[in-house]
From TrEMBL:
Gene3D superfamilies for this protein: Jelly Rolls (2.60.120.10)
Family annotation (Pfam families): Cupin_1 (PF00190)
Name of protein: Cupin type-1 domain-containing protein
Coiled-coil residue windows: none
Keywords, alphabetical: Disulfide bond, Seed storage protein, Storage protein
Entry's family note: Belongs to the 11S seed storage protein (globulins) family.
Source taxonomy: Eukaryota, Viridiplantae, Streptophyta, Embryophyta, Tracheophyta
Residue intervals of the Cupin type-1 domain: 1-104
Secretion signal span: none
The organism's place on the tree of life at top rank: Eukaryota
Length: 130
């Protein structure tokens, strides 16, 4: 699984080398612009600031990503390194029109500190929150 993320300063060209994965891409307004399977030989162009997430559909999915910037800046949308965990609670509250208490819960409510819990977790414990 590729952690949902976007590039702040680069476009990406993804070339699937082996296997297949389900890929979802949303634009800057949250509109889904791609929600399909990427297979060996396929190429996908991701514009800057478009969010992408992928889940392998085979055990051997491999890809290479080319960026248009030699020092790309990537913002993760989930997991321990998500941009949300680094924002002040007041910014989250104002951005999502939430009370400060709810914004603090949203900002800090990731008990696993990573996107995918270990395999030995039960299904009920595998809920991902970020």
């Amino acid at each position: 699984m590729i952690v949902p993320h976007y590039n702040l300063n680069a476009n990406s060209i993804i070339h699937a080398l082996n296997g297949r994965a389900h890929v979802q891409v949303v634009d800057c307004n949250g509109n889904r612009v791609f929600d399909e399977e990427l297979q060996e030989g396929h190429v996908l162009v991701l514009p800057q600031n478009f969010a992408v997430a992928a889940k392998s559909q085979s055990e051997n999915f491999e890809y290479v990503a080319f960026k248009t910037n030699s020092r790309p800046s990537i913002a993760n949308l989930a997991g321990d390194n998500s941009f949300m965990s680094n924002l002040p609670a007041e910014v989250v509250a104002n951005s999502y029109e939430l009370p400060l208490e709810k914004a603090t819960q949203l900002k800090n409510n990731n008990p696993f500190k990573f996107l995918v819990p270990p395999q030995d977790q039960s299904d009920s414990e595998m809920m991902i929150r970020s």
